[in-house]
Design brief:
By secondary structure, this protein is of the alpha/beta class. The longest helix is centred in the first third of the chain and has 22 residues, at 2-23. The protein has 2 domains: 26-152, Nitrogenase molybdenum iron protein domain (Rossmann fold), CATH 3.40.50.1980; 169-296, Nitrogenase molybdenum iron protein domain (Rossmann fold, 3-Layer(aba) Sandwich), CATH 3.40.50. It has 13 helices and 11 strands. The strands form 3 sheets. Strands 7, 8, 9, 10 and 11 form a 5-stranded mixed beta sheet that branches. It has a 4-stranded parallel beta sheet with strand order 4-3-5-6. A two-stranded antiparallel sheet has the order 1-2.
């Protein structure tokens, strides 16, 4: 009797699996469109570094057959064929890779042409932490692994919490100017970078009303008088030469974080390594007092 029940249960589970496989996968992207896949994709082209990292973090790196020119993590991704970027993606090269799914951002110019050729395209954009959580799960569902995106989010979220717990009390509430690119362009409160800073108990000189990554008047930064300046090592040396910036106490007193260029790219990617980015920021904060004392000697 027990053997018969086990056989019946196995048959039931097999039938459910076959039915799910026959039904395929349907996910909605950020255009509000349903992307239909007959089966989990096995040949994926990613046109965003954050998408590349997400696929790999979901243990599906072996399914990538092509990536954009900026995808540099993990090591496995560096060996994959390059197909350009959002604005200059190489259509013929993408098609030649025979993808059964392309992951793209909202500004990719080849989306319509790829879809006209019958290639499914999932268009995703993450502007804040809630978006990152959603995108991780959407990609996981597209890969045929529902729930793994949420599990990944919980892991990186816990990592941010752990980093926040290590921020010394004396540093909490310090107001940060985080420059994402010369211009200057900054990370505002409503960006995923700004939200990460807030999770680390830091303030931001760029309010939500200015948007996620606004271009600022250099004088705005001078008037705001940030307690800490964060930027890439490549762009930092030019900062003191900007009109009025020689008066910024943060620059004069060593209250700044200069991130190596290759690592700085990680800080600007809304993807699964955001916990690592939070840890790097906290590590920099831990050295601010020592740097200030050296400057004053």
């Amino acid at each position: 009797m027990k053997r018969r029940c086990r056989r019946w249960l196995a048959a039931l589970l097999l039938g459910a699996s076959l039915a799910a496989h026959a039904a395929g996968i349907s996910v909605s992207d950020d255009r509000g469109r349903a992307v239909e896949l007959q089966r989990p994709p096995m040949r994926i082209v990613s046109l965003l570094p954050s998408s590349t990292e997400t696929v790999c973090a979901l243990r599906a790196c072996n399914r990538l057959v092509g990536v954009d020119r900026f995808s540099d993590w993990p090591q496995q991704a560096k060996a994959l064929p390059r197909v350009g970027g959002l604005e200059d993606a190489q259509l013929e090269r993408i098609v030649a890779l025979k993808p059964d799914l392309v992951l793209a951002g909202p500004f990719a110019r080849v989306v319509d042409r790829l879809e006209a050729l019958g290639i499914p395209v999932l268009v995703l954009e993450a502007k804040d932490l809630a978006d990152i959580r959603r995108v991780l799960e959407v990609v996981a569902r597209a890969l045929g692994s529902p729930g793994e995106g949420e599990a990944l989010w919980q892991q990186l979220n816990a990592r941010i919490d752990a980093a926040a717990a290590r921020v010394p009390i004396r540093l909490r509430g310090r107001r940060v100017y985080f420059e994402v690119a010369p211009g200057p362009f900054a990370a505002g409160e409503v960006s995923f970078v700004g939200e990460t800073l807030a999770r680390l108990a830091l303030g931001n000189i760029v309010p939500a009303a200015l948007g996620p990554f606004p271009k600022l008047n250099p004088e705005y930064v001078v008037r705001a008088r940030p307690d800490v300046v964060m930027a890439s090592a490549r762009d930092f040396p030019a900062m003191p030469g900007r009109p009025g910036w020689e008066r910024l106490d943060a620059l004069r007193n060593g209250q700044y974080c200069r991130f190596a260029d290759d690592f700085f790219a990680l800080l600007l990617r809304p993807g699964p390594r955001l916990g690592e980015a939070a840890e790097a920021i906290v590590a920099c904060l831990a050295g601010l007092d020592e740097r200030r004392d050296k400057v004053r000697q």
